[in-house]
Amino acid sequence: MIDINLDLIKKYDRPGPRYTSYPTAPQFNNSFTSEKFLDEIIRTNNEINPPDLSLYFHIPYCDTLCYFCGCNMIVSRNRDRIKEYTNNLKNEIDLLRYYLKEDRKVVQLHWGGGTPTHLNPDEIIDLKNFINNNFSIDNNSEQGCEIDPRGLTRQHLEALRSTGFNRISMGVQDFNEQVQKAVNRIQPKEMTLEVINWIRDLKFQSMNLDLIYGLPHQTLTSFEKTVDAIIEISPDRIAVFNYAHVPWLKKHMELIKAEDLPKPEEKLEILKMTIEKLTSAGYIFIGMDHFAKPNDELSIALNQKKLYRNFQGYSTHSGTDLYALGITSISQIGRCYAQNVKKEKEYYEMLSEGIFPIERGIYLTDDDLLRRYVITKIMCDFELDFNDVENKFQINFENYFQSSLNKLNEFIDDGLLNISNRKIIVSDTGRLMIRNIAINFDAYIETSSAKFSRTV
Known about the structure:
17 helices, Arc Repressor Mutant, subunit A, pyruvate-formate lyase- activating enzyme, three-stranded antiparallel beta sheet, alpha/beta
């Protein structure tokens, strides 16, 4: 079990990036255009052995607004509006397919939102079959979908399963009724359990449940009951997210009263309890917010040092080209990140002109590639071998990262990592502060004006 030192957590609880990318999204700029994205598509596709594909599809629509939500979402029940969007997703697929070799395998596919299951079962089948017919989906591919049990029917899950989805991720957040009312997400435990039974009956290979701590009216005692219930349900994976109250970024968060939020001290106690309970129940702490059973692919990848991190969080598929389709989605291919436009109208107009709907992005320098590798290794392996970096990038590690290494002395003194035999090795306690450690290798952080969530 991980030693949870609340004094150290308080010390290092500062704002910082989540490093789902490096450089992080605030470094993206409008000078990265659709033309530059297309150039990188063509370049990577023409490699002798181009990478396998990972596909992400953003379905932004939701039936109702959850006040805690930090996602790019649209509340709409207008079926014509939703139909227009899925038709344009097909247009984006057609545009992309034109430039990709037919034999490139899709090894990972994910629908996120919003609420993908805000589509009705027939719409799910129609869109997923279009995807299946336009890409070469590997027989062993991971195909995941985020679902919301509110308004969900068994037919929704049957539609997902029949078209190839094998993984489900579902938000629970908190079973406490008072908390649910305060965040406008009424989801009785009985409803959640019914959907879980359907998921298991339909033999989905993996199920993830999301929790959020730091929501209004949560207490250590009340959230402990939710954690106990989740352990009893025994999902394959559990994600425990920290609620970031940022009404200056997400105006609807003003609907949550700041005085109803747990005090920082209790919030940390909730985090401590959650980690201790989940790890005592046999879950492996993967890193950041993620926990998985020992036989889960994430746990195996962690042990084998094959874990990876991208905009979908921790992953077992490194080395793929990630193409993200739909408004606001962020692709990661070759040496670039490219984010789609945020508005439906602009998205439709650009696609009608045969233009990739890119709003901004970044082309990575050699230094960016080096630092991305270092930060990814620290975030995923919890260790870093200087010799490995030197062989890969032809540098002298100590010389190149002298200032970064000097900043790590504080972490060494606090027992969060050690450096020996030209290796950084993060301790079990240090894994909780992994963002704080990685930030020291970020070349942009000192000049960035971006506001980040807190690191713990």
